[in-house]
Amino acid sequence: MSRTASCSCGQLSIVLEGEPRGVGICHCFACQRRTGSVFAALAGFGPSYNVSGIATEYVRTGDQGARFRFRFCPVCGTNLFHTEEGYEARSVAVAVGCFADPDFPPPEISVYHCRRHAWVSLPFGVNIHDKNPA
Fold first, then answer.
1. What pTM does this model have?
2. Domains in the chain: boundaries
3. What integer is the mean pLDDT of 24-52?
4. What Gene3D superfamilies is this protein classified in (predicted)?
5. Domain formed by 2-128, architecture
6. Under 8 Å CB-to-CB from 121, ≥6 apart: which residues?
7. Which H or E run contains 82?
């Protein structure tokens, strides 16, 4: 099975093979600012993916020192996907909303719950972590 995620204008897209390895929500302030929303919803996939279009990149260092390379569409500004430096060949994280699929699998994990907006409710059974468990 393949899945395609794309930016708002369609200039940048990513095609991924198989089911996501995991789906999660991050409430950290960096993700809130990056997405312009109160959390980021991300799906992790294995290394079999193909990117089409031109991306602008932004590198951010996480709380635990890992460096993440985010890819944005330079036309519409959509933040489509990111990789962790040193692990690009192993996995990619894609913004769930970019699949435009209301049947996409729900999140299994929620990180930085300590920064969750009080009015945000999570689906039953989500594994909650106050910070990043890694």
1. 0.93
2. 2-128
3. 95
4. glutathione-dependent formaldehyde- activating enzyme (gfa) (3.90.1590.10)
5. Beta Complex (2.170)
6. none
7. strand 79-84
